[in-house]
TrEMBL record:
Family: Belongs to the cytochrome P450 family.
Protein name from the UniProt record: Monooxygenase
SUPFAM superfamilies the record matches: Cytochrome P450
Keywords, in A-Z order: Iron, Membrane, Metal-binding, Monooxygenase, Oxidoreductase, Transmembrane, Transmembrane helix
One of the Pfam families matching this protein, by short name: p450
Cofactor field: heme
InterPro entries from the UniProt entry: Cyt_P450, Cyt_P450_E_CYP52_ascomycetes, Cyt_P450_E_CYP52_fungi, Cyt_P450_sf
Organism of derivation: Aureobasidium melanogenum (Aureobasidium pullulans var. melanogenum)
GO MF annotation: an example: heme binding
Coiled coil: none
Length: 407
């Protein structure tokens, strides 16, 4: 069979026409969707002021955010977004990233609405779950609605006063940490933050699994290195939004596998215990750990793995970051150190181990910790999506006094 030049040209034209038609349909669909969204926003409230991006599709904002993250300057970078104080309520802005609308707010009334008065209007959403699922699965930090409530009911009883006031699990690792903070005879300079992260990882794994990774004594511990790698890559995945598919994940998945190899044997050992044995261990002070308590309520391996990883993330980072900032501040304030020392001598003494009651009664220590958390919040930002058509109380319009429509 012979094909003439005119036939080939005709086929080529047909393909181009077909592709052009598909592109026009996609464009029409996008325009129609944007018109519908705009109508909803206007019916609910107004837009916030727009963040300018020097690259189309908001990619300049993404690039700047990744740059700030790598320089450990993310919070300051976001604060610069609100530098224009011309509005009555200036701490809310919005931008579109590859077509997706993103609203950033540091306004106390908006945060109150998201976390309290309009709590059921907002959640983590399907995209957040998808972005974090490989790391945290369907844990309390990645779910909404009934699934979130079930996670909360599962975890909350494990943090009753009798458990969190048991300081023995911290004491063992603290005795290893303290000499290290003094450096060695050749070098008195130490990376305190690195030591604090290892300390909290050791204490957290001991509390959760009944077995510590002992990273303070084993600097080359594979689990702690893997955990740090997963967190670093996950942080980038979460920051770049719809562009996260381009984030390299080879080291991420290799490190997740190292974590799984460490955690899964403890889950298997725990599930070999009978329900009666688990109940006895979970109620006993001797040999208690978080995994035993969870396994008393569920024997689902995936649920146990997801909740353990989530609580490990929370327990390690929050305490380590707070300790790092606290020591950074008081290292420049000998007057505060002197007051803390006097309070410790008064309530505990220099030869006794502190108890929960001691800690509770040391008001100045509590104030120092609270001020550290105020200046250096452990969770300086959070992510929510609207679960239904709703609003934010203010930040919309030219002066920021109107509600913002959030369809």
């Amino acid at each position: 069979m012979a094909v003439t030049r005119s036939d080939a040209s005709s086929d080529h034209s047909s393909i181009l026409i077909g592709l052009g038609g598909i592109l026009l349909l996609l464009l029409a669909r996008h325009v129609f969707s944007r018109i519908q969204e705009e109508r909803k926003i206007r019916s609910l409230g107004a837009h916030a002021k727009t963040i300018n991006s020097w690259v189309p599709f908001g990619l300049g904002f993404v690039a700047r955010t990744v740059h700030d993250q790598r320089r450990h300057d993310l919070l300051a970078g976001w604060y610069r977004i609100f530098a224009d104080r011309s509005a009555v309520h200036p701490f809310t802005r919005e931008i579109r990233i590859v077509g997706n609308r993103l609203v950033l707010t540091a306004d106390e009334e908006n945060i109150k609405a998201i976390l309290a008065t309009q709590f059921h209007d907002y959640g983590k959403g399907a995209q957040f779950n998808a972005e974090w699922h490989d790391f945290l699965g369907d844990s309390i930090f990645t779910t909404d609605g009934e699934q979130w409530h079930a996670s909360r009911q599962l975890i909350r009883p494990q943090f009753i006063k009798d458990r969190v006031s048991d300081l023995a699990v911290f004491e063992k690792h603290l005795e290893i940490l303290l000499p290290m903070l003094g450096g060695n005879k050749n070098d008195h300079t130490v990376d305190a933050m690195d030591l604090f992260f290892k300390f909290t990882l050791d204490a957290s794994t001991a509390f959760l699994l009944g077995h510590s990774v002992n990273s303070l004594e084993n600097p080359q511990d594979r689990f702690s290195d893997a955990f740090a790698t997963v967190q670093s890559v996950q942080s980038t995945i979460a920051r770049v939004g719809p562009l996260n598919r381009f984030v390299p994940r080879k080291a991420f998945y290799e490190s997740l596998n190292v974590m799984e190899q460490f955690i899964q044997p403890f889950i298997e050992q725990t599930l070999q215990l009978t329900p009666d044995e688990l109940e006895k261990k979970s109620k006993s002070d001797e040999g208690y750990n978080f995994l035993y308590a969870l396994a008393s309520f569920t024997r689902d391996r995936t649920v146990l793995r997801d909740q353990l990883t989530a609580v490990l993330l929370a327990g390690r980072d929050t305490t380590a970051c707070t300790l790092s900032w606290l020591f950074s501040e008081i290292s420049r304030r000998p007057d505060i150190v002197a007051k803390l020392r006097r309070e410790i001598e008064e309530h505990v003494g220099m030869d006794n181990k502190p108890t929960y009651t001691h800690l509770k009664n040391m008001r100045y220590l509590t104030h120092v910790i609270n001020e550290t958390l105020r200046l250096y919040p452990i969770v300086p930002f959070n992510v929510r999506v609207s679960l239904k058509d709703t609003t934010l109380p203010r930040g919309g319009g030219p002066d920021g006094t109107q509600p913002i429509g959030i369809p």
